[in-house]
Amino acid sequence: MSLxxxxxxxxxxxxxxxxxxxAMVSRGRWSADSMAFQGTNMLAAGTLLTVAAANGIxxxxxxxxxxILIGVNAVYTVVRTRKxxxxxxxxxxxxxxxxxxxxPVQVPDHVPAGLADRMPATQPAVGYRAYAEAA
Length: 135
What we know:
135 residues; mainly alpha; two-stranded antiparallel sheet; 4 helices; rod-shaped
């Protein structure tokens, strides 16, 4: 097996990988910021760069190198954004406030004044229920 045959096969693998990545994003299976898309795209650009350099096609080699650099930057951005989001999510602790559902006490007329002063001003509306509200 000659070296040029290996390079040609790599070229076809790279071209196929690039088409698969493009199709997956176009069909909505992958998002442009997914690691699958970025990794497949960089793999495709790397193999196509190798083929272009082996054949002395320097404009194609340069554009594939640029594609790899763009992919590296995209992966860095995605990783940084995910780490920041995870850190912010871990830092967010919900604040809860306990709220009681109460109604004022209606003192009946037949209760003596001294006893009415010792009665609580409020009582639970239905049994005793308290619940928490997110602040």
